[in-house]
Amino acid sequence: MELFDILNEDGSKMGIQKERKLVHEDGDLHASIHVWAYRINKKSREIEVLLQKRSLEKDSFPGCLDAASTGHLDAGETFESAAIREVFEEIGINIEKKHLHYIGEQRFSNDEYFHGKHFLNNEINHIYLIDESISLEDIHYQESEISGVKWQNINEMLDQIKEGNDIYCTDFSEVLKVWSFIINRI
Prior knowledge:
- By secondary structure, this protein is an alpha+beta fold.
- Helix content is 23%, strand content 40%.
- It has four helices and ten strands, in the order E-E-H-E-E-E-E-E-H-E-E-E-H-H.
- The chain has helices spanning 20-26, 79-91, 154-162, 172-185; strands at residues 3-7, 13-19, 29-36, 38-40, 47-54, 65-67, 69-72, 100-114, 117-130, 146-153.
- A hairpin with a 5-residue loop joins strand 1 and strand 2 (13-19).
- Helix 3 (154-162) runs antiparallel to helix 4.
């Protein structure tokens, strides 16, 4: 059973823990992470980001394209430890805290139906970039979470999100933050 810490509006913990299912039924504020990975395409010299295609069995956003690794914080967990755990669980890459670059925080709320069930999401999300020194050659994704991975030109992704392509379950502002952070690193 997954337990999440319930957060106050300022992001501090309330001292209450609830089961994942109940958190999304009630719309409680909770914490999550998005971890992005990138490379420079050797032929085009363009920035590409690694995207996961979420499993069709996921309880939220099934089949859509998302950051390389995403997930919720378990009760008592820090944002950094959740990022390290999720990267290993989802794409099989071992990283340490020093390999994570913090990009920023965002609030994410949505009220959707997936698989005929109501899903009320209200989270504070920390966004990270994996250090470019990490080898992504040996990606082994968790098939219960992810149905595939692919490299996507970040400029094309931004254009497609701007045009309303709903295959992505990340928003324009997040991808723009990632793009800006990468541009300032290279």
